[in-house]
Amino acid sequence: MKNYQFGADYYPEHWPEQRWPMDAKLMKELGLKVVRMAEFSWHKMEPEEGHYDFEWLDRAIDILRKEGIVSVLGTPSAAPPAWMIRKHPKIQPVGPDGITRGFGGRHHDCQSNPVYREYVKKMVTAMAEHFKDNPGVVGWQIDNEFGNSHYDLCMCDSCKTSFQKWLAKRYGSVDELNKAWGTYFWSQEYNDFSEVYPPVKTPCGANPSQVLDWKRFHSDLICDFSKVQTDIIRSIVPKEHFITHNCMGFSDIVSYYDLSKQLDFVCHDLYPFGYWRDHSLEPFEIGVELDGIRGVCKAPFWIMEQQSSVTGWEIMGRKPAPGQVPLWAVDSVAHGADTVVFFRWRSCLGGTEQYWHGILPHSGIPGKTYEEIGRLIKDMTPVMKDMEGAMPVVKAAIVRSYEQGWAFDIQPNVQGLNYYGQLIKYYKAFHHKNIPVDFVREDDDLSGYKVVIAPLQYLADPDLAAHYEKYVKQGGNLVLTMRAGVKERNNLCYAEGPLPGVFSGLLGITVEEYDPLGSVCVPVKSVSGSEDNRDASCDTCSKTAGNGLCASKWADIITLKGAEPVFDYDGESYEETPAVTVNSLGEGKAWYVGCEPSESLMEAIVDMLAKETGTGSVEGSDIKVPAGVEVTSREKNGKKWIFILNHTDEEKKTDISDRFRVLSGALKDNKLQPYGYAVLEG
Ligand SMILES: [Zn+2]
User: What's the CATH code of the domain at 465?
Assistant: First the structure.
């Protein structure tokens, strides 16, 4: 089905047809095996209503196929053409402000609009029928980056009706809806589902339960919009064709968990030097996106858009340093990508993305980027052929939940608190120690992990508590954090007992008071004294120069009900009360972190967990690397590949035992070049 290693996103329709054979020849010389095409080419494929023209695309596919390059076709539903919009202006989406977003960009479509859906069905059917027997076509991408550009759109009349139907199905009766949303507040009771609006701009405030359901509905709507297309394609094309979608890391408009049920595998679009930043993503920020995407299907994935050069719309981001583009591509492979498709083949002359540069510059003349990517492809292709399907072996997991993220998006609880920021903070501490991490769902089987971190389990129910309790009793180490068990699933506050609600018994604590700290820090100290001598300062305050151990953003004031204290607050009116606790239960332990830990405190907690559980870095003492060098691995059929990645602009000396053979990259005298990489046989 796969095994293509490297590819490019190609837009033949941007260039004269005479150029296509030259492009295909240059791609072959570079070592590319696959292209993605057509995801924004609706008008080229249906220039007038009902007049389909796929012949230009046939010719492009043929030219590529003759050079040994296969094609993935995108469905063009992210960019309906102007003729359709003129005829049916209601296809355009409406914002929360009631204002219609018009033609001239992309994603100017309402995904619930029945007229638009009919056009989409006809186009996807025509494409699938036309290309089903084309030997150059191997797979399909649905739409483009669901959730990107749409945000909280659309709130048009069609979406309002769809929302009302979705609510009627979820709650059965309007009385149940009133109960679930707490509509007694501010006289918001409904007599009928037809009275319910999407969360449009109001004079003041919004109902958090209503907004949470809107986010759920919106995610379901996107999955349904996609399923209309995947169902058509699957009913027409050969079963060898795959169907995928290009996701965007921790973007949360649509649940990738739900979306992936209809896909064969997921893809990710990776831009470490996005134009909206003046610095590259940190290594842990790249790693977290990649591990997050691997967690969606618990399988290897593709990068459908990998940064190849300078990116930009109105303004541009920095130029990647020599070596950085290859390093990022190898980083993708190191975390589980089987195929890396560079965005894009050639920088475009027109349109919004004319500064989003590709492998070739505007001139089309191969330059330094082409040469650098060519060296990478030559070096990595043989290793990647062998490695296809390999996965990392991981003993630590972080729970990622779309619903918890949505709930904190609606109510951050305190200035600066962010669900994904919290997940990433825990991830970073593991990443710095080169301890591999999986992202898992709340209800996943956790028994294979020695340690599971479940930050901000805000929405909870007895089933979730029982699930976690089972994991702990069987020997797991579970970490829950502040704001656990605050609400039931409909975003109403929990009233059956003190916090942390359904988790109290599991954690052996209660939290009767809390202090929403915001930007204030409270020092903490370890109960045993063993962790207080860290040589660090707090990343947010200057109170704790010397060890950096701080609680920030939030302080739960904990009463022990069987748990032991691990860290105590060292200030404020709750000085000497616990900030971090641990409760032994069955064969395992349930930890509670009642604050956002400073980086130094986070490191201390992760050190404790690693020690407690024997969770270590890849190959432990056989591989020693300095700061800034990442180590990961993938395994298949008893064979192991170890990746050593130098994320810095300096040469780095490593200490790697000579039992490892270098398969690709360079490790001369145990040294990595700036932005250098090495793949070792384990
Ligand atoms: Zn709509």
Answer: 3.40.50.880
